[in-house]
Write a structure and sequence with these properties.
- This protein is α+β, with helices and mostly antiparallel strands.
- The protein has 2 domains: 101 residues, PAS domain (Beta-Lactamase, 2-Layer Sandwich), CATH 3.30.450.20; 144 residues, Histidine kinase-like ATPase, C-terminal domain (Heat Shock Protein 90, 2-Layer Sandwich), CATH 3.30.565.10.
- 41% of the residues lie in helices and 26% in strands.
- It is built from 8 helices and 13 strands.
- The strands form 3 sheets. It has a 5-stranded antiparallel sheet, with helices on both faces. A 5-stranded mixed sheet has the order 7-9-10-12-11. Strands 6-8-13 form a 3-stranded antiparallel sheet.
- The radius of gyration is 32 Å and the shape is rod-shaped.
């Protein structure tokens, strides 16, 4: 605790107990005669300081507030400060009595509790996104027998696991489209062109399934099913939209237009239903293309500095 004298210029400290000196690291000679503002520092809230000033100026009210203060060695502590005026019989303010309680540990515990709560909410959000994708996979996967169905579902869930690994490596800050493509097509020699931007986890997870389906379809039925085929993927980014252009050349001429069993219906469902975008297929002799337009939010795209 300290006692200050408002009748003297700048309300200096006239009494400080040992607990105050131990808390702040100053000696009595270093605090007596000084205004208490020497405990303030760069991170002390200006709003809190103004609230203290107004409370003292009122000369009537008990003031209590939590603010960040600084010790002599520069270390910080959270101070639960309480100030009350001491009046004489006529009502004149003789002194201000101020007590300080170090609540650093309590504040830290509250901050950790808040961080834990936010973390749990984020984990729940990521889990819900993953489960929504798995639900789409289970609903839209088609196969003639149990073995083929099981294999198709497993491959699609593996694609979700791969993008989760990429996102974990970046602490869930996002991942580049190049990396999503590389995870699916390490040896396929795709022609890739697009700006080096990160996309958010919200987009990365469903787009991982989209890329998996397109690449798998090209391997099994399209341009990568035999030698001589070529696949290119290009993308561009605007403030409101991510455009992806998938093109295959040199596909088997006998292949009919895409059938639901080729996985392209899953691509359309994810783009249109889950992401609210547009998916258009273009089918010509020995070539196949798909143009995807996905709306984006400002936080979905992280451009390099």
């Amino acid at each position: 605790m300290v006692v200050t004298d408002p009748r003297q210029p700048d309300s200096p400290i006239v009494l400080a107990n040992r607990a105050f000196l131990e808390l702040t690291g100053y000696s009595a000679d270093e605090v007596i005669g000084r205004n208490c503002r020497f405990l303030q520092g760069p991170e002390t809230s200006a709003e809190a300081v103004e609230e203290i000033r107004q409370g003292i100026a009122s000369n009537e009210h008990f003031v209590t507030i939590e603010l960040l203060n600084y010790r002599k060695d520069g270390s910080t502590f959270w101070n639960q400060l309480s100030i009350s005026p001491v009046h004489d019989d006529s009502g004149e303010t003789l002194y201000h009595f101020a007590s300080q309680i170090d609540i650093t540990d309590r504040r830290r515990a509250k901050e950790l509790e808040s961080i834990e709560r936010l973390l749990l909410m984020e984990v729940d959000h990521r889990a819900m996104n993953a489960l929504a994708l798995v639900q789409s996979v289970l609903t839209l996967t088609r196969a003639d027998d149990v073995a083929r169905y099981s294999n198709a579902v497993r491959r699609r869930v593996d694609a979700i696991a791969r993008v989760h690994r990429l996102l974990a490596q970046s602490s869930w800050s996002g991942t580049a489209l190049n990396d999503l493509i590389a995870e699916e097509a390490v040896q396929d020699g795709l022609e890739v062109e697009g700006p080096p931007a990160k996309i958010s986890p919200r987009l990365a997870q469903p787009l991982a399934i989209v890329l998996h389906e397109l690449i798998s379809n090209a391997r099994e039925h399209g341009a990568l099913a035999r030698g001589g085929g070529r696949v290119s993927i290009a993308w561009s980014i605007s403030p409101s939209e991510l455009l992806i252009d998938w093109a295959e050349f040199g596909i088997p001429s006998a292949l009919p237009e895409p059938l639901p069993g080729l996985g392209l219906n899953l691509v359309r469902a994810i783009i249109e239903r889950q992401l609210g975008g547009i998916a258009k297929m273009e089918w010509e002799e020995q070539s196949f293309g798909m143009k995807l337009a996905v709306p984006v939010r400002p936080e979905d795209i992280i451009l390099p500095a």
